[in-house]
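Thread: Newbie trying to understand structure tokens

Hi all, I'm a second-year student working on a class project, and my supervisor (Dr. K.) asked me to get a predicted structure for one chain before our next meeting. I've only ever worked with sequences, so writing a 3D structure as a token string is new to me. If someone could post the tokens and maybe explain what I'm looking at, I'd be very grateful. Here's the chain:
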Amino acid sequence: AGEITSGLHAIIDEAFQHVALGSPQKTIVLLERLRSQEWNRCDERLKYRILANLGNAHLARDEPTQAAEYYFEAYSHQPSDIQALALRTLGLLCVDKVAEARQSATSIVEENPAHRQGWSLWVQAHLESMSYDDISSSVPRDVQKDGEVALALANSAARAGRLEDAERHARCALCDEKARVQAHFTIATIVLQDVVSKSPNPEGISIPH
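---
Reply by user tm_fold:
Sure, no problem. This is what the structure looks like when written as tokens:
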């Protein structure tokens, strides 16, 4: 049983590599096949990982509603796992259940103040309800160095028209390899927003996150 479980975990890892290679649809095909063929042999952790990575692949395809459905189902298999709760929170944001996401993200960072994804989700969930200053002062300084958190803070600052702060956070994200591509894109967007804001008829540009 242990060898089977290890083998299935390896298949999941291999399937998800296609997302990083720009082929999330291939990940979906492989994981759906695994789900169809091996589901009854999977323990709760394996079921969680299959569903969570299906959600991640759909999110990579810019399909937030489908991603959320997988995140919610994944959470049902590991309800006591804080990472599963983080994915559930992300799912809530994907379907614009912001108030519920706010509560969920708050519970994550209260339980684990160093949980970086939890803080990123917390920032995203408070974009509409808190000022940039209040958001940035609430996030622990050491956590702000995390790429995902830094990008969320850059988004908050940009929404407030604080472009220098937005660029500072985005440049901080450059130090995180996983966030580097998004950080470069964010910096370019901030520079463009700065140019547009100084034009005769400025219009705000939102930063995708």
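A couple of things are worth pointing out once you decode it. The radius of gyration is 19 Å. Residues 75 and 81 are 8 Å apart (CA to CA). Feel free to ask follow-ups in this thread.
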